[in-house]
Amino acid sequence: MNRPIDVAPGRIRPRRLRRGALLRAMVRETRIAPEQLIMPHFVLPSANGRQAIDSMPGIERLGRDALLEQVESDAEIGVRNVLIFGLAGEGEKDPVAGAASDPKGAVPLAVKEIKKRFGEDVLVITDVCLCAYTDHGHCGFLDDAGRVLNDPSLEQLTAMAVAHAEAGADVVAPSDMMDGRVAAIRDGLDDRGLTETAILSYSVKYASAYYGPFRDAADSAPGKGDRQGYQMDSANVREAVKEALLDVQEGADMLMVKPALAYLDVIRAVKEATALPLAAYNVSGEFSAVKAAALRGWLDEARVVRENLHAMARAGADVIITYHAREALREGWL
Ligand code: PBG
Ligand code: ZN
After folding, report:
1. Is pLDDT above 70 for 3?
2. In this predicted structure, what is the pLDDT of residue 7?
3. Is 215 in the pocket of ligand 1 (CB under 6 A)?
4. Residue nearest to atom 8 of ligand 1 (CA)
5. For 74-114, what is each residue's pLDDT tens digit?
C-alpha cells in the first residue's frame, strides 16, 4: 500500500465523521426533498369507486372523488407532484385507442378537477400511452401481422397529449417508446397554443418484468406478444444515451430512466450525457418486491426505501417517481 510517509497509522480516521447523528447529518452527501418526489395514481373513468390492486398493497384505483381526497391529504404531508394514469371505461377499448384522446376520458376529467381544486398547489403530470385503451394492449397501432406501427401511432399519441394539456396538465409524459413521439407531441401542443405544457419523456424505458404489477393495475398487458419490439433491451446502456440525446433534440424538457434500481448505471450515463432534469421511475415491481418482503417481516421497509431513494439520487436522479412517496413522507422515512 502506498501511504504517504508523514501520515502516521491511525491519524486519518473516517469513523470520526460517523460518530453521532448530527455529525453524520451534517456531512451527508445526498438529501431527498419532498419536492423531488412524484406519486403515481390510477384513475377510474367514474366519479366514484375505490379498488384495491392485489399486487400493489396500499395502492388503489380511484374514482375522481376519492382521488381528490387522496391528493388533498397527500399534499398536506408534502406530496405535491402527481403522475396520473387512466383506465378505459367498460367496452371502450378498440384497436386504435380512440378513448385515449376523449376529453371526457378518465384522465382529462381528473386533471380538470385537480387543477380546479388545487391550482398551483399540485403539479399534474399525465402518462401518455395507448396500451390502457387498445383492445390488443400494445402501446401503438398494430398491422395485420401484429407488428406495432410506429408513425401511424404518433397522431393518436399527440391527440392524447393535447387532450391532457387542454384539461390543464402541467406536464405530459409519453411512455409508449415510439420513435419521434416527442417531436410529434411538441408540434401538436405548439400548434394549439399549448406552448407552456412541458414534456417529461420516458426516454429510456426498458422492456422489463418489473412492470408486472402495473399492468394489473392499469389493465394494460398486451394480449399477444410482448413489448420488446419497442421498449429497450436490458443489456444496453449506450443505446440509452442515444435515446436520451434524441429526445433532447426533439424538444423534451425532462428525461426519464425506467425502471430505476436495476438501471443505476444508466441513470448515471444519461445524467452525464445531457443537461436536462432527469427522473428515475421506481416502478411497480420494485415497489411490490419491497412491500411483499416487508409485509412478511423479512425486510425493514423504512430503511430499505430510504436506501433505495439514496441510490437513485446518488446515481443522478433529480426527480423520483415512486409508489412509496406517500408513506416515505408520512412516516418520515427520508
Ligand atoms: C405504459 C406504462 C407502463 C408503465 C408506465 N407507463 C407499463 C408498460 O410499459 O407496460 C410502468 C410503470 C410501473 O411499472 O410502475 N406504457
Ligand atoms: Zn404503453
Report:
1. no
2. 81
3. yes
4. 211
5. 999 999 999 999 999 999 999 999 999 999 999 999 999 99
Give me the phi and psi of 324, to 5 degrees please. Answer: -90, 0
In-domain check, residue 70: yes
Give domain status of residue 202, yes or no.
Answer: yes
Q: Which domain holds residue 99?
A: 32-330
Inside any domain, residue 9: no
pLDDT at 8: 85
Quote the CA–CA distance of 92 and 110 in Å, as a whole number: 18
Per the annotation, the verdict on 258 as an active-site residue is yes
What are the cell numbers at 102? 376523449
pLDDT class of 9 with cuts at 50, 70, 90? confident
Residue 267's CATH number: 3.20.20.70
User: pLDDT tens across 291-326, in order?
Assistant: 999 999 999 999 999 999 999 999 999 999 999 999
Q: What is residue 4's predicted lDDT score, i.e. its pLDDT?
A: 61
205 is catalytic: yes
Q: Which ligand sits closest to the CA of 84?
A: 1
Our count of domains for the chain comes to 1
Whether ligand 1 lies within 6 angstroms of the CB of 283 is answered as yes
In a domain, 27, yes or no: no
Q: Which of the residues 93, 112, 258, 291 is marked catalytic?
A: 258
Tell me, what amino acid is at 142?
Answer: L
Q: Which of 93, 205, 271, 291 is catalytic?
A: 205
> Ligand 2: distance of its center to the CA of 21 in Å?
44
Name the residue with the closest Cα to ligand 1, atom 5: 175
Q: Is the pTM of this model over 0.90?
A: yes
Please check whether residue 154 is in contact with residue 188, taking contact to mean a CB–CB distance below 8 angstroms. no
Cα separation of 208 and 297, whole Å? Answer: 27
The answer to whether residue 210 scores a pLDDT higher than 70 is yes
In degrees and rounded to multiples of 5, residue 243 shows phi and psi of: -60, -40
Pocket of ligand 1, candidates 53, 85, 125, 129: which has the most ligand atoms within 8 Å of its Cβ, to mutate?
129
